[in-house]
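User: structure tokens for this one?
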Amino acid sequence: MFGLLLLDKPAGLSSNRALQRAKRLFAAAKAGHAGSLDPLATGMLPVFFGAATRLAAFMLEARKIYRVTARLGLATTTGDAEGETTEDRSSGPAPSGAAIAAAVGQFVGEIEQVPPMYSALKRGGVPLYRLARAGVEVERSPRRVTIEELTVERYAWPDLQLYVRCSKGTYVRTLVEDVARAAGTVGHVADLRRLSVSPFAEQGMRTFAELEAAAAAGTPTLDGLLLPAESALEGWPSAHLDPAAAAKLAQGQAVQADPALPCGQVKVYADAGQLIAIGLVTAEHRLTPTRVFIR
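Assistant:
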């Protein structure tokens, strides 16, 4: 297999469990995903099958879009609805709409975030969430992320719905907690949906119900739901090689690049239009393979 699925992950499943379920449906020997979602979250989880898993790393830089509902007035251990309450201000004064708008405005642009303890980041090889579950908290260095858009879609105390377009590495739970504090209260994520992972639009997602119905109709129907794996590399320049050059590149050898190609990473296709590799065009206009899909 060599394809990409935009899975609409349901709530209650970890990203890995969702991946394994999709892998079984497609009877794939190998699968991987790009960009984990918490079990509470739903939405777009790009899943790569077969040799296409080598493309997943290129999506780690992708812009993401979320719709999140924050429950204000309550803080939790995890920053979301799965944690235990640590602070209750639900009976206190509700921030005004103006206060919410002012707070939200503080977090548009390049900001610093302290990663939450309940995250997959590692300290000494141990994921932070495991330390947190053991009652251990360690110091975390702030990270710079970019919030390209942060819009209030609905506010009716205690619920605040936000539309978020952000860079890689953004923790929406942390963003919700920080916005709540800036508005004079506390908060946590009550509901989170990832709408998009660049370059893909929300409309391309497939639910498990759709996948199971397609599987029942037969393998061709199921495989018809896959996207070309290289669609994850939208906007990349392409190199097209004749059979002799393609054979050399497939064996790990550099070949002469088209002078019109810019330096940097390119998609490499054989004459028949099949993606065979990711290559790097050097300043000397040599095309070096960095990931080969066919040998």
